Amino acid sequence: MSMKKIVGLILFVFGWSLFGFGAKFYVDPNQGSMSNSGSSTAPWSTLAEVISQHKIESYHYSPLPYSANSQLVVFDQGAPVQAGDTLVLRDGLHGDIELFGYYNSLPIYVLAEAEHHPVLRTLRVAGCRQWIFKGLTISSEPYGDYANNILVSIESHNWHGPCARIEVADCQVYSTDSPWVNADDWVNKASDGFFVRADSISLMDNQVRNVYFGIELMGDYNQAVGNSIVNFAGDGSRILGSHNLLDGNLIKNCYKVDDNHDDGLQSFTTNGLVVDSNIVRNNIILNYDDPNQPLLGPLQGIGCFDGFFRHWVVENNLIVVNHWHGISFYGAIDCRIVNNTVLDPTPATNPGPSWIKITDNKNGMPSSGCVVKNNVANNFQIDDGIATNNITLATFADYQNEFVNPSVYDFNLLSTSALIDGGDASVAPPFDINGTSRTTNGSGPDIGAYEYDYLVGTLPVLSEEKIVVSPNPVVDYLDVIGEVKGDIMLFSASGLLVR
Question: What is the dihedral of CA 237, 243, 248, 253, to 10 degrees?
Fold first, then answer.
């Protein structure tokens, strides 16, 4: 057993995402009072009251409405909670949380205490900077009603000013605890999960369920990483900005309740939106995991309509949808679509089977400069660009010849798969959707989202053959416990080699 410590490494893209070193204040709806000091033994009552009773020192712009001439000025100066401090929330209902014009020089942390499950009815952050929310439940259902609106809204604001550097992590966000079985309930009760209309926002490892839209990123330099969006009735996700990252998310179980054409991920350029240089990698998009699901309907995979879309990277995604639109770009310039697995669970049934498609935009202007390589799909329709090293699988029987168990969405490769070593190494990402290196086995990268790996293929896993890596995500150090055979390579969330 050996240990290797690497000091001085900051992997997390937003370097400000560290736990606070300031004071801690406690908030307990069941035992607290706003006349208390906010200590662990004398907590305040609810987060909503902490805000409304001016317990937080921060900055806002003046004069308002915000303009280029506005300046940040302090307000509630001398209040107990200041930049770098932490608000620790305990069990109970903390209310509708509205933060308008709270700009901090260091993050203020709003965290659930260990073994506690604080519940916010909704969270709205507008014209703010440097806030981190972690481990919270955000739902109106425990309050006895259904908001039928947006559960988490993070937005730049015409009055209060721009919003940036907000993180929401490890939160439970839901309209209802269990999905409804009739369409009227979905239409009249479901809320959207996350609506982001801001820049440099981070959504990490949240569980979003039973919502209309899941995550909408309407801004630049945002990231949604490691989230699950389970049971939705509109679009699982949207990217309506540039330089955004959608990485390692699970998006599954579409409920058909209205006339919306539902997408796992949708993007468009309507009303002058610019949607360039986005990265979509390592995501799993499933139409359903239960073919007997109520209100089951078709789901489009990745639908990028009304382009142009420039410099997108779409790689290492598993997309299993019963629709033609597996990955579709209508107007693409210099986009790269590589190492995706795009298949219809019922390829003999309309609508479908699933294609990877690049074609003209809606005005007939052609796409150009795109690369489509190392993918497996039911069909390819590439009007312009380089399309090589792709494999077409037409039937479910074809799936069974290549994958471990496609009936339960296990698309790891069989040892006999024709996809092994068939990829172009010049465009393949360094790792597959599971984090397996694409260079350690065989003579070249495999086709599709999954690299063949004997650990999940045909050979047994030995209990001694494992290492423990912590913390995750990495902050300023990395511990690797176990016997390391070979080199350790470290990458940022955007795929850049760090060391």
Answer: 10
